Amino acid sequence: MINTRPLDPVTLTVIDNYLTSTCRDMGVTMMKTSYSPIFNESLDFSCVIFDTQGQMLAQAEFCPSQIGTIKFTVTWTLDELGLDAFEPGDVVLHNDPYRGSGHVPEHMMLKPVFFQGKLFGFVANVAHMSEPGAKTPGGLSGDATEVFQEGLLLPPVKIKSRGQDNDDIWKIILANHRTPKVTYGDFRAMMASLDLAEGRIHELLEAYGSSTITSACDELIEIAERRMRAEIGAIPNGVYTFEDVIEDDGITDRSYPIWLTLTVLDEEIVADFTGSAPQAIGPVNAIYAVTASAVYNAVLHLTDPTIPRNEGCYRPITVIAPPGTIVNCTFPAPVAGGNTETSPRITDMIFGALQHAIPDRVVAACGGTSSPFLFGGTDPRNGELYAHFHFEGVGWGGRKGADGNDMVVTINGNCRNTPIEVFETRYPAFLIESYRLLPDSGGAGEYRGGLGGERLLTVTSEVTVSALLNRMLADPWGVLQGGNGARGGIWVKRVGHREWATFVDAFGTLSPSKFSGIRLKPGDQVRLVMPGGGGYGDPRQRDRARIAHDISEGFVTSERAHADYGYAE
Amino acid sequence: MSAELNHAGRESPAITEEQAREGEWIMPTVSYINPERRFCAFTGRPIARRFWQVTVGERSLSFSDPAAALRYATYPKSSAKPGIQDPLS
Q1: What ipTM was predicted for this assembly?
Q2: Are A408 and A449 spatial neighbours (Cβ–Cβ below 8 Å)?
């Protein structure tokens, strides 16, 4: 029997919070039971609940880029397989970017939830595997030219059928990953989180009945859509444009402009990327799901954070990205960096476009790169292969009322960095000599850009490294007269040499910031510099006491305080 | 007939709202041997399987759903200019 009575606000809130808490607990399960630091330290995963129509019912506050893309990953899976393909106890695994995944390392698992013999919906998670079977350890190959080089592609396949492992699928995957034990452990962690969520939803359905829960979810979606429309309606109608650039692609030295025309009309937003550069040869392309996810991320940042995060809040947002461009590349273009580098750039562009329309809400550009530094080798302690995707925080842009965050993982990530103790224990290749904030790296402004940082590593055993960074050639921009943040980059000092060099000069790579498969020897050193954030507002308006504090804390030098802010001690 | 990929802006044929409504759902089979890759003519979104086909003369356009076709019919051509200046040059 369908419940036709409107639910009271208390019950609706309880149900909404229950679903969201379920998603949070899914994440805790993965954190506590996984094998790799990218899971249990960095929390590079997301957890969601969907209904049978592929509508998102709930999410938790994990990784924004994944939460946006998983909408496409799940709906693709349901469309390709069809609802009739699912049986109780099934688990589907999928990571193909040309079927809606963000990039190859991010693997989605999906489990149908049946209740009293009927399919209620799906629970799903997506997580970044630091070893996806790519051409180089760590998975992000800075000079990949095809998606096939980025890892083992998995269309939606059942890794479990009716509660039983499909051993042949496991064998294919484990045989193609450098670290099968870690993959096994992380996949089991993902499955455990799905089992937990399934149990929680069963409890909810038993408590309220599926009719009430279905009605509640429909109502929550309508509420979210209504509230998001109201928020968008408060933005002045207009056509706003902005352009930015991806500086190179690891294969050629050409740069790739991205053009945005953002139309706000009444209660809807259209982000149109027509006019953007054709897709790149190297791995900086974004697939459609990544571009859409980046736009969603920006709009969610600009609007009321208490709006329920479900299907409804995405409905007023339309994304137009012509196929064959850097924001919607076609098969088999490489895409690994699209999700880590191009995505935060797109999010920043939305802020840039709206800086004059809603100045109190926008943020200057963040460092805009995950600073991906990938490495792997043979552990001299036990002879086993290891691989890691290391990423860093960056300075965030200043905003009205506050300086940018210092060294926080970029706006589409919301992940944590790996503590030095864990890094050095798990990965025997490096000793971390220093890890610090960099003075003067935040863009000047009434509200200063956040600081970038520097990590200095010494190689202790032979290791193969790769990188896929941005903001080595282009500054993170400020808004509303704010100054640019400092650039980042990566340099190497070979053992026996005194000077730092780019990887171009030291190893002949095509790009200083995007390369793969470089072998370093004990004694070599790597210097990773993370960019700062752009400044917000006129630096001359910055409160003098804040400048004094910046100087005393070492965030800004006296020289730059004088030059950028006109400050004299 | 596969729909035309449109990555140069709104160069696909214009359609009327009536034509947008008079399309039909197509449900192709999924092939891994001969995969077809199809995009919504309005948004560019890749289409997994089922699509709304609008035929104009001898040409067909694929859309994610009828709503996308309707918006395609009424959406103004983008003011963005292809081949924009590279800020780094």
Answers
A1: 0.93
A2: no
